[in-house]
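QA checklist item 7 of 12: single-chain prediction sanity check.
[x] sequence parsed
[x] length recorded as 336
[x] structure emitted
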Amino acid sequence: MLSHRSLGLIVVFSCVVTLLLTSIGLANGRIRTTKYAGEPSRASYLSPGGEVSLSRDLLSLPEERIMAFTFDDGPVERDLEIASLLRKHDASATFFFIGKLMERSPDVVKKVLEEKHEVGYHSYRHQKLSWVSQTDLKEDFRLGKACMTRLGVPVAWFRPPYGLFDTKVIKTAKESGMKTILWTVDPRDWTGIGPDVISKRVINLFHPGAVLLFHSNHAATLQALPEIIRRAKADGYRLVTLTEWQNTIYTVHCRLKNRFCPSSTPDKVAKISTIPEKVSHDGTVTASVSVASEPLADSTRNLSSIIPKKGRHRFPMSTLVPSAQQHSSEATLPFM
């Protein structure tokens, strides 16, 4: 029989091995961002490929008060009800569809697009893509992209199943013309909770620039949406697709931070310099703006400089925080 000392050494060794395996997994970028609703996290992987940069001080003015609703795991018939409900409230969303299901239900895909919503890619078979071989990974994106092309779906956005990704997943998505995006709010509607719980979790985490994760293959999600939409509208939010979300972010960045500005020539970008603001007697703020040009930099970074290494993004994006949760300048948004 093993002595107590030997057993203790075995336990310690097992713990060390576990930690090493965890470190290896993080080094390969295999990170799951989802946590229980209400539990804060300092994850910075909203945009793992670095395509979208969101600063804490943006999207807080009324004219930029937006949120992006996203729905995973379709297409299913319920997507049509969700799409119709959103359009009745002058809201748009992005639906992340599974390739194999798109082939089975092409009519659902086309009707969602007809409702002026957006369709993104959610893998071909809903696999954990960071666990498959490079050959199978490329085949997944090839099949998915071919399916989307046949159905007339613009190829723009990709969301990895389970929020799992690594360097090769991000790179393959980018090579396929897709921007990888995760979320900032996850009510965990897939766990069987009721609509009241879903709506409460989501509403409590509203914030400008939010990307909300839902799953359309659960009835409670549809039942929770009317209250969520009502509260969002009451709080002055516009509910938009991810493409409009990104374009709004870029517009604000250009206006305030001289980044992502449209260029008149391929190698130039407009630089906006603002003369100090003037405040009139009635409290109106005015500013003069002059435009210059400088070499394009931010939007053309080399891929090797933006994909995650050793489990951390080299360019972590700072995020907005709900006012009720702001404690300091270093506060971070609770990623769900």
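[x] summary fact logged: The domain at 62-245 is CATH 3.20.20.370 (TIM Barrel).
[ ] second reviewer sign-off
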